[in-house]
């Protein structure tokens, strides 16, 4: 029996839903739960303008509470689906399924989630994809494939046409004994890619992920790359992000041409109790017909929205207040995972 021909779709391709997990007092959000809930309400409100959202909750009580909070904010609850699942925290970009699609089938790649290299307990998060699969969230056309290899969804970015973008810093930290050639071969096989582009530079202070690509650089339609730039020579990120920008400028498309580049503006430093927080405009989420971008209450928010409108023409740019999220070192893309069109069970 021949293996089905599968493809890793780009985020801008049609989606059936966005998957998130509701923050609770049992997650790392406990100390600032009210602020974070407000961000989640704004996020669900933005998503449901364009498509459904699937919300993981740990139990019926949390589901009832979340329902009331969302409904009282006039959210279209016909587009909200709850599913009970156990989880440690809400970073579903990294614990959720990495979905490949074929003509009539899907594969849910269920990689190991280790809490970003063992920094945090993630035993329940590592079981999340299996729990959702058993709960019947996904179409019967979907198969789950467990892969004993640590990989987070935020560490990889695809153009939907066989090219993967990632960072050496993150993959090398997770797999210090693996060569670049070995990692390239394995990623290409599991994710149905025939090119892997590596960045050796780029980081954000306060980032727990060891330089996830989704905080730094993202593919956009038409052989384009959107990336987080830094134009402040006095900022400690300046040299590293300048080096990353030069690396990105040197990348070539499949046809040997340079990518069209969209540098994002640099927000002012956000400091919490003396700790620099990892604010990045590159951590945006694409949904059907729109781009949801993290807003930080910074003068650069509007400029970032203008760049994203250029990079993703024809999509509405919706700002979601994400300052509470970066207290835990992640942002909008990190707490979401898109499900390709047809993957969600009816």
What are the SSEs and their pairings?
Elements (H helix, E strand, L loop, with lengths): L14 E7 L11 H16 L4 E5 L2 H12 L8 E5 L7 H4 L2 E4 L4 E7 L2 H4 L9 H7 L7 E9 L5 E3 L4 E5 H7 L5 H12 L3 E5 L17 E4 L3 E5 L9 H13 L9 E5 L6 E2 L2 E2 L8 E3 L2 E6 L4 H12 L4 E6 L15 E4 L6
Parallel strand pairs: 1-2, 2-3, 5-6, 8-9, 11-12, 16-17
Antiparallel strand pairs: 1-18, 4-5, 7-8, 10-11, 13-14, 15-16
Strand-pairing-aware structural class: alpha/beta
Task: Supply the CATH architecture.
Answer: 5-stranded Propeller
Largest beta sheet: what is the strand line-up? Answer: 3-2-1-18
**N/C terminus separation:** 29 Å
Q: Give the total of beta strands.
A: 18
Radius of gyration: 19 Å
- Average residue pLDDT: 96
Instruction: Supply the number of structural domains.
Output: 1
Strand content: 25-35%
- The backbone outline, from C-alpha atoms, is globular
Q: Any idea of the CATH topology?
A: L-arginine/glycine Amidinotransferase, Chain A
The main pleated sheet reads as:
4 strands, mixed
Q: How many alpha or pi helices?
A: 9
Report the uncertain regions. Answer: none
Mind explaining what this structure looks like?
The protein is an alpha/beta fold and 346 residues long. It has one domain (15-340): L-arginine/glycine Amidinotransferase, Chain A. Helix content is 25%, strand content 25%. It contains nine helices and 18 strands. It has helices spanning 33-48, 60-71, 92-95, 115-118, 128-134, 168-174, 180-191, 238-250, 300-311, and strands spanning 15-21, 53-57, 80-84, 98-101, 106-112, 142-150, 156-158, 163-167, 195-199, 217-220, 224-228, 260-264, 271-272, 275-276, 285-287, 290-295, 316-321, 337-340. Strands 3-2-1-18 form a four-stranded mixed β-sheet. Strand 15 (285-287) and strand 16 form a beta hairpin. The radius of gyration is 19 Å and the shape is globular. The model has no long low-confidence stretch (mean pLDDT 96).
